[in-house]
Amino acid sequence: VKLEASQLDSLNTALQKNNDLETELEATKRDLANSKDDSDGAESPTEQHRKSAFSILNRKKKTEKPIEQATAKLLETKILSSSDEDEKQLTSIQTDELSKLKAETILVRQQYEHLRRSTSAELSALPEISKQWTDQISLSLEASQAEIHRLRERLATESASRRKLLHEVQDLRGVVRVYCRPRPPKNDVSLFEMPSHETLVVRRDKLDSGESSQPRSFEFDRIFDPTIPQTDVYGEIQDVCLGVLDGFNITLLAFGQKGCGRTKSVLGEVNDVEGKVSIESHGIHLQSLKQLFDIAEHRSDRFKDTFSLSIVEVHNERLLDLLVGTTYGETRANVVVADSSSRKRKDKNAEDEAGSGKGAKLEIRSDLLGDTVVHGSLSVDVESFDEVIKTWSECITNRRKRLREQNVDIDEYESSSHVIATLKVTSANIATGHGVVGKLQFVDMAAADLVMRQKNEPDVAETMSTMIGLNDWKFRNRSLETLCHVIQARAQYVRNVPYRNSTLTHLLRDSLEGDTKVIFLACVSSDPADMRESTATLRLASRLRQVSLGKATKHALTSP
Length: 560
Description:
Blueprint: H1 2-36, H2 43-173, E1 177-183, E2 192-193, E3 199-202, E4 216-219, E5 222-223, H3 230-241, E6 249-256, H4 262-266, E7 269-273, E8 276-280, H5 284-298, E9 303-315, E10 318-321, H6 327-331, E11 333-335, E12 343-344, H7 348-354, E13 363-366, E14 372-375, E15 378-382, H8 385-405, H9 410-415, E16 417-429, E17 435-444, E18 450-452, H10 458-468, E19 473-475, H11 478-491, H12 503-507, H13 509-513, E20 517-525, H14 531-544, E21 556-557
Parallel strand pairs: 1-5, 1-20, 6-17, 6-20
Antiparallel strand pairs: 2-3, 3-4, 7-8, 9-10, 9-15, 9-16, 11-12, 11-15, 13-14, 16-17, 17-21, 18-19
């Protein structure tokens, strides 16, 4: 450091000298410039000045050389000194950075180790935590399901109580229970809207026919969803059907146009594959019989229940016995006669008196108890549900075989005929011997298709206009026209009701006159193209709902 200070002092001294020489040289130059204008021949002063100037320059050069050397040396010394300092400073910085990096590395390792230990601990505790959460979720689900089950049971209890009270009110009033089952539409456009389970709105504006487009609403006891399964349909009316075990008479009437599901609702889906008939998706009739057999088996230690089945058909006002030609009809059938309850088919005298057998004439008469029966028809004692299925399959197979032999269109024939299946149930208490007898009747009516009326039918036009709101249309089937007359007469409390004007109404006299719980199932189409037939069916059902039949009573039996 001392060497550097002395060098700086000598350098400053040399620079001062150099500045003095430069000042002196400038003064000499000015003197030469001034003396040049005075005389060109006076060379001595000029020469002196020139020499003086050259002397000054030489001294300046001699002075500048050591100055430059000193300056260069000084700069070299500074550069070396600064390099050493920079290197030392860089080394110091690198050392500090390395120290910081080491400290950060140690901290990161510590954090990593802490995180690894905590993660390992959490992973080890995870199964236990998962089990706890699973248990809590299971408990919550069980509590929720229990609450849902409790609410469902409460809802079912309330609904059952409501239905029971409704049935009691209807029993006291003696009114007809009317249900409606719409068929799903073929496309996305539906003719109906259902604001509730009891209200059906017909959107007549969806039919482009120039007629009134004002919607029409109908109220019934229940309107089923078009996609409802068969079991739910039966579940709605099973309480009424099971009343046959208590000695009541129950009749279900299925009404509607062709293809609306009457047969499906009553019997089920009938499949015919190469002459082999099977019944699937059982309807109300078969489901009720299955439940009755289950109940009879369950209480067989206390009651003795017997079931007898008869199946007749009405086509073109003619009665046909569908049990004729079946296995059970030929082996163990009873012949129904009007002057007594029944007689065995093997009794030849009774068979001759009743006019039974193939080709025998069937007649509608009243027996000793005043009940309407088909004189000469067969009644089969059935002991299981399988026997019922076998009997129905044989009945349908024999009828279709007969129609094929006669070259008759099966669909057209079945849509124009009425099928009445009657189940007679006798329940006797084993301990006391007392019991009851009830009758459960299912009627699959002919298709309620409409045709244009003739001009010479004013009475029919008036009745049809009142019943279905159509002046120029009538039902194709004559029995349905008579049914409209009967319903109209019953609604107006007419003394002379024209039951005998049709075989169907004559046969259903007991059901339409009183002492019977009647269920009317209106099967309608949701397609706008079928609005006329659907509206006619709904109007008829609404009118029938106003008919009061009287309170149904039990039919008791005593021990012999």
